[in-house]
Amino acid sequence: MGDDYAIETQNLTKRYGRVEAVSGLNLKVSRHLVTGFLGRNGAGKSTTIKMLLGMTRPSAGSGTLLGCQIDNPKESREIRRHVACVGEDKELYGYMTVEQLIRFTASFYQDWRPETAQRLRDRFELPPGRKVKNLSKGMRTKLALLLALARRPELLILDEPSEGLDPVSIEDLLQLLVAAAGEGTSVFFSSHQIAEVERIADRVCIIDHGKLVADLSLEEMRQDYRRITLGFASQPPGHDFDIRGVQQIQTNGRQMVVFANQNIDAIVERARSLEAVSVDVEAVTLREVFLETVKEAQ
Amino acid sequence: MMLFYKAWRESQVRFLSAAVALAGWCLCLVVLFRAHVTDQPYDVWINTQIFDGSGKELFIVVIIFLGLGGLLRERAHHTAAFTLALPVNREQLIASQIAVGLAELALLALLPALLIQSLSALAHQSYPITDALRFSLLRFVCGAVIFAISFFLSVVLRGEYTAAVGCYFALMVDGLGSNWLHPYRTNLLRTIAARWDWGAYVPDLSGPLPWTLLSIIILIGLALFAASIRITERQNL
User: Fold this and answer.
1) Percentage of residues in chain B with pLDDT exceeding 90?
2) In this structure, which CATH number among 3.90.470, 2.40.160, 3.30.70, 2.60.40 belongs to the domain A225-297?
3) What value of ipTM does the predicted structure carry?
4) Cβ distance of B79 and A81 shorter than 8 Å
């Protein structure tokens, strides 16, 4: 399947009455990478994923998955041959046993890998004869992952995959996602757990109020984003920091914290020229970038 | 093929419960209750109690519940995301539910006809198989419309049993409306029991079946199925 991006949306919008759950979203998710999709509750993550998967029709705008239009029924079916998803609910057919559900799902995919399914079933210790409704939420998530990964999908979309999992299972999950990406699968997952995203994602897209507010590479973030804490003998001169690279400035008494993503040396130089008594430059975490981005968007 | 399997597994409990309920009620009426009735010929008793009356009411109720399906129901059970991620069209999903439901309906329509033959022998009675099969045909045709109404309502209405209640009301409205407007032949509750005429209080299988009416009923059912598929194709879940 063609196209440079695994996921691409143009002005994707979803309205529920007067409420715009997703508002002109322009998203570009590169292939063969792990991309985290961050946002607060109600930011529009799940609605976006539902539109991408054809569960909900966009009110406006368009989107492609692996080059196929999401709102074209024929192409949507093609998308589902190549895209695996683990939804927010992670509910599966409770009336089937684990084995029955694996056989049921396998019948829809020509590229199903029984050996992978078997390996994951053993690794996750999923009892084949147990009814799905009798599995714990964690076990159901693992089964959903098994069903998604045994197909070797080109793109794997997960909505809050670690929700309800214990720490050991989360670790397992993260390793699986990294391994899937290593085998060429593009992974796109939404999460509230910033630490998880920071651990495995190559890129991060941040959504707020239905709009994309940041799209950054974690490598670039680690290299470029800095928190510069400045101490002044008197009231800090805020307006003098209106220079390239400054993302946000917070002033607290005689202390000023500048968040910047480039031009760090020039900012430090400017601080010294303004007679800052202390200058501390530190790398920032994804959590800080997320919080600052979301605050700024408000 | 696996979609039919899915549809069967989803309706299995409802279908088996319906079969047990219908069989149990036939057994009670023929073997237990009939012994206390002496003023009515056996075939009239079967016609009025199993193919009309309480037997008919029970059949209608189980068909209403058998008709519950659609993606809103899957959404309520939180399985819609998994189902919609499968590489199949929505119409295929719905069509498989309808096909399996109609097959189950056919079996349920046939069940009393078959059971009565053996139960009658137990009670040292006999009932004409041709009459029983004609009632089965009426039950299948009218049952298909009841199934279609219930299915259609469960496609458009949220709530576990909202569609069932809605379907029951729809049948009541049909019954009252057809009495009032006088085209009583469109009254499903009378047609299913072979009570063709306004004054008829007992089933009448003496003449030929009203094929035109039955064809119209089938067309109404097909229209409801088509509408259900069309709506599901465009539904936000």
Assistant:
1) 54
2) 3.30.70
3) 0.83
4) no
